[in-house]
Batch of 2 targets.
Target 1
Amino acid sequence: MFLIAVWVLLMGMEFINLAFIVVHAFYYLRAGTNRSQLTRAVYHDGILYYLYLFAISTINLIIVLRISSDAVLLLTTMIRVLHSILTCRMILQIREQLGRLQSRDIYISQTD
């Protein structure tokens, strides 16, 4: 029962983070300032990241409430792995955008 409470708290945290990033991205797009590819990638990947995590945690909670307690540890491991995979994907996408931005800035500075 303790594990279910922890997952509910985790889902709540993921939902709050998702709401914050969606609201911040909305205000960012409405303001129209500094629309760089890096900032767009951070918002886009951040929203997808928290949306996926919230969906996975919700599905996990539903499954855990429906099956026996023996499979709970297996699902816990799977959720940890999915969190790590999604986090690495987001970080790699942001690094890729940053690399493109830096290579473009180097090219622009060399042509001046």
Target 2
Amino acid sequence: MSPAPASSHGEQFAEVVVVRHGETAWNAGRTIQGQMDPELNETGRQQAVMVARRLSKETKPAAVYSSDLKRAAETAQTIAAACDVSNLVLDRALRERHMGDLHGLKWDDAVRTHPEAYKALSSDERNQEIPGGGESLEQLSDRCVSYLNSVAEKHKGERVIVVSHGATIEEICRHADPSSSVQRRIPNTSVSIVHISGSDGHWVLEKAGDVGHLNDDGFLQDAFGGDGASA
């Protein structure tokens, strides 16, 4: 008898558990990271252990996929070890949104020193690119959605864990449920769950930004979480 599919939506769907990386010093200092590559700070490493502990008690994933940036990769390695998963794949497709001229700036300074780039970041126009080589929301969505569709094709009926970044996860949730309001609600190591059909590309959002594992430890902080600038 074959095992029951991991997704409640049936054997054609992959259950994709999307985790935001742990905190970095740049998160704590309100510095725009984008595709720059700071590592986790001590708080972030503790958060990674907590989310890994939570996931290790749930259905075992078939694989862990992650952005190749250090803050995500280290979070993913902690999760893979706790879940006893050897299949860990790092890929640029899961990186944070490219922030162009805003990379490395303090959030508060960006408004003053690069008003055009800040305006582009804040724009609801999905084709608006950020000056300095930055991505539009549409470009970000195309990148991560196409990658996760390919992951779902490989893992029909299975659970996989994906470790990524705030703005990228916002786009994943928006694609799964365009009516959802998750902006700025994706804290560090939060868990979102999307069911993706490996057959027809249908997406269903189950939850977004859940941090119950941090609440349980009395560790939940007023995280500067979820928007593209902090991610």
